[in-house]
Amino acid sequence: MSVESVSAQGFARESLAVLRHVIESAQGDVAAAADLVAECVRAEGVVQAFGTGHSQALVLELAGRAGGLVPTNRLSIADLVLYGGEDPAVLDDPLLERRDGVAARLYELAAPNPQDLFVVISNSGVNSVIVEMALHAKEHGHRVLALTSLAHTRAVPAAHPSGRKLADIADVVLDNAAPRGDCLLELPGGGSVCALSTLTGVMLVQMTVAEAAGRLLAAGERPPVYVSANVPGGFEGNLELEKKYAGRIRRTAS
Predict the structure, then answer these.
(1) Nearest to 104 by CA among 85, 71, 80
(2) Is 157 strand, coil or helix?
(3) What letter does residue 204 receive in the DSSP assignment?
(4) CB of 38 within 8 A of CB of 206?
(5) Which regions of the chain are under pLDDT 70?
(6) Sheet containing 172-175: which strands, arranged edge to edge?
(7) SIS domain spans which residues (predicted)?
(8) pTM of the predicted model, to two decimals?
(9) Which of 125, 84, 124, 131 is nearest to 103 (CA)?
(10) What does the pLDDT look like over 130-149, one tens digit per residue?
(11) What's the rounded Cα separation, in Å, for the pair 63 and 38?
């Protein structure tokens, strides 16, 4: 790749090419993912979304945002402090996401219902807490939808003691098509710049939500969808929709 390609236009051109590829190649997987989401909503379940690091951006894209489904819940390592009574200092550990038992504790704090769907998001798909969450969800009878980079996960060794990766566990896998290491533009002399997974991940999340909403509409059911809280009546209307899932979804200031 030339020096000239490391530019705004270079990133736009290369990332749009990957987005076009994702839109075309992921249609079948998006349809399968939408089936899981629609089945969950129809069964009065909650979509439990979990990720660490920058994957939390995609959790926020799915859980609790305008235009998104109401029965969605954000799971976070910070829940250990917010809901689990842990000392805030525990979050200073940069290796916390590799500690055994963290995912099991987060699952316990969420207290999911059997019909809840778990959406587990990780670009690498190998972090211990990610794999543990997927395994724990499957062991408790939940369906698991993964959003990951197959190129990255296939290029690195498993980190969990089971030897498994997120893509090995999930019922449906959405491939964000990000390269190993996530960055898209190669730098002269080695290295690369500009991460891609958030961009393609957002596309896959919203395609799945749209397809799931379409399935509910086709069945004569109105999808429970958030309105922006910044339009008149939006906040009050959202509170009314949330009553059905009281105690099962968390909505904090963050």
Answers:
(1) 80
(2) coil
(3) H
(4) no
(5) 1-4, 253-254
(6) 72-75, 47-51, 117-121, 143-148, 172-175
(7) 37-223
(8) 0.94
(9) 131
(10) 999 999 999 999 999 999 99
(11) 15
